[in-house]
Each structure stands twice: as structure tokens, then as C-alpha cells.
Write a structure and sequence with these properties.
With 321 residues, this protein is an alpha/beta fold. 30% of the residues lie in helices and 24% in strands.
């Protein structure tokens, strides 16, 4: 295994405008390649847009979704990867031959599709089918996994992906700045985004406070630390439909330390070099070896009815306008 230079990106996607979103992906991929990156990772549904899908009918979703790997977006990603000699990870809505719909995230290199993952806990549209398996693949000898947004909040998913061999977990999101039962949560007013050039301070205070980054720091570094993984967190910046998102795309090492983070309001990326040694040096590696699964195998594996409640889907968004 060699050192691996990875970029994690953020940009303001346009709802349903695949051509525009792919043009930004191409621009940032080209720039990352010039800077010597082996890989670039984009956010959840970075190709299609995300939040607007909550209003789409099944027919509209089928028109938006694509077959993988034969869809036009995958072919375009492959072209971008080949032209820039870089591995690209990006998200979109998928349909299969039977018109089942999924939230998908793909890894593509110059030869085409490397891996595809389907979100285990989708919720943005009622016609989406949940994925039913984890995903492990290799990039330059590194074992990698993918978990999309809400999937990372169920800690068993992260540990399972690690136990299947992943040393890097790509964590594409569209998150933060939404209401919740936790203190300090809520939407961020779109007007702050519109005024970001004249009043960047007010916007940054909202983005970095409990509505945004402060919440992220409560749990994301712990996922890396506990599992001795590199976490590649990607999140959009700006308006996603009628919701404002705060970016903060970052790379966290197996010690739980932030190696790189996007800290502008622009379409951008942050880069870090991943070194194999940290996987072994980090405390999480020792803790995983010390596990005693005979104590909790039956507890963790007992029958359970999954219940997923996303508070902001039922929130009154008029309060932010």
C-alpha cells in the first residue's frame, strides 16, 4: 500500500440539472488531478441534487434515476476519470431493470465502474428501496467502504464496514442545518447565504454553531477513532432546493484528527495524504482486537423492528423565510 492523496469536495448543486452538476464535478476533478490527487469524493446525490426529490412522484423519480453502469452519468464520470487520471466518487438516484428505485453512490476510474453502494436508510422519497448489503472495494491497494449520510448515524454500520476490511470509509452527506429534537438545531435562513459577501460573519456563526459543525464534531471524529479508519466526509455548500447546507467537507484520520477541511463558501475541495501506518498506530486498532463478541453477539443480533424518524421532514420550513 502506498500513500494515497484524496480530495473531498463541496459545491452548490442544482436540483435535477445533471449536466450542470457534472460540469462542476469535472472542473473540480481536473483541478484535484493537477494538484496530484489520486481520488476525489463528492456529496450524496451530487449528480442529481437531493432535497427536491421529496416532492417527486414515482414517475418523476424514474425519469431522474439512471441504470448503473450503463447510464449517461456513469459514462460521463468515466470519461472525466479517464481524462484526468483520477478516481471519482459521486452520488445519484438509481433504477434497476424492474424500476426499483435506490439512492446510489458510485466509485469510477478510467476503466469504468469500480463499486456501487445503495443507501441502507433512505428517506427523502417514499418510492426509494433500501439497500441490503455493505460495499467493500479497493483503490490502489486500500480497502474502502461507503456509507451514505444517515447510514453513518447507526454505529453498527460503521463497525460492520470496518470488520469487512475497510480502512477508508467514504461518507457522502447532505446534512446539517435542519431541525431536530437536540438543543440548538434548526434551519439556517437562506437570506444569510444571499448576503454571504456583505455579511460572512453571521453566516459562518450559523454554519459553525450547533445547527452545523458543532453538531458534526459530536460524533464524526468518534467514528474514525473507534474504528481506526480514515473518514472521507463530503457535504454540499449553499442551497439544495430550499435548504441551506454548510459544507465542512473534511478528511479525518484514524486518531480522530481533522487532516483537511473546506472552510470557504465556494465550490472547492480539501486534500490530505493518507498513510498506511496510522491504521495500525491508532488506538481503535487495539480496541478492535480486544473485542469479546461472545458477550454481545446475541444482544446486538436480537430481533428488532427498524424505525426511522426524520424530524425535519415534518418541520414547518416557513419559519426560516
Amino acid at each position: 500500500m502506498k500513500n494515497l492523496k484524496i480530495a473531498t469536495a463541496q459545491f452548490e448543486n442544482k436540483s435535477g440539472d445533471k449536466n450542470y452538476n457534472l460540469s462542476v464535478i469535472e472542473k473540480l476533478s481536473q483541478k484535484a488531478s493537477i494538484e496530484g490527487c489520486d481520488v476525489i469524493s463528492f456529496h450524496e446525490c451530487s449528480i442529481t441534487g437531493y432535497t427536491f426529490a421529496m416532492h417527486l412522484s414515482r414517475e418523476q423519480m424514474l425519469n431522474l434515476a439512471e441504470l448503473i453502469p450503463s447510464g449517461e452519468s456513469i459514462l460521463k464520470l468515466t470519461e472525466i476519470a479517464k481524462n484526468n487520471n483520477i478516481v471519482i466518487l459521486a452520488g445519484l438516484f438509481e433504477k434497476d431493470e424492474n424500476n426499483n428505485l435506490f439512492k446510489a453512490y458510485v466509485c469510477v476510474d478510467k476503466n469504468g465502474l469500480v463499486a456501487k453502494y445503495r443507501k441502507l436508510h433512505p428517506f427523502i422519497n417514499p418510492y426509494l428501496t433500501a439497500g441490503d448489503r455493505y460495499c467493500i472495494f479497493e483503490i490502489e491497494g486500500w480497502k474502502c467502504g461507503i456509507l451514505i449520510c444517515y447510514d453513518n448515524n447507526i454505529i453498527e454500520n460503521v463497525r460492520a464496514t470496518k470488520l469487512l476490511g475497510a480502512d477508508i470509509i467514504f461518507m457522502p452527506h447532505v446534512t446539517m442545518c435542519t431541525p431536530s429534537t437536540r438543543p440548538g438545531a434548526g434551519f439556517v435562513a437562506p437570506q444569510l447565504w444571499e448576503n454571504r459577501e456583505t455579511d460572512p460573519t453571521s453566516l459562518r456563526l450559523e454554519f459553525d454553531g450547533m445547527k452545523g459543525r458543532d453538531w458534526l464534531m459530536k460524533w464524526l471524529p468518534a467514528r474514525s477513532y473507534d474504528n481506526a479508519i480514515y473518514a472521507i466526509f463530503s457535504n454540499p455548500i449553499g442551497m439544495d432546493d430550499d435548504q441551506l447546507k454548510n459544507g465542512c467537507s473534511m478528511i479525518i484520520d484514524p486518531f480522530g484528527d481533522i487532516l483537511a477541511e473546506c472552510r470557504t463558501f465556494d465550490d472547492s475541495f480539501a486534500t490530505a495524504v493518507l498513510t498506511p501506518e496510522k491504521r495500525i498506530q491508532a488506538g481503535g486498532n487495539r480496541y478492535i482486537k480486544a473485542r469479546r463478541p461472545e458477550l454481545y453477539r446475541d444482544i446486538i443480533g436480537q430481533n428488532h423492528q427498524s424505525e426511522q424518524n426524520v424530524v425535519w421532514l415534518n418541520s414547518d420550513k416557513k419559519s426560516i423565510n
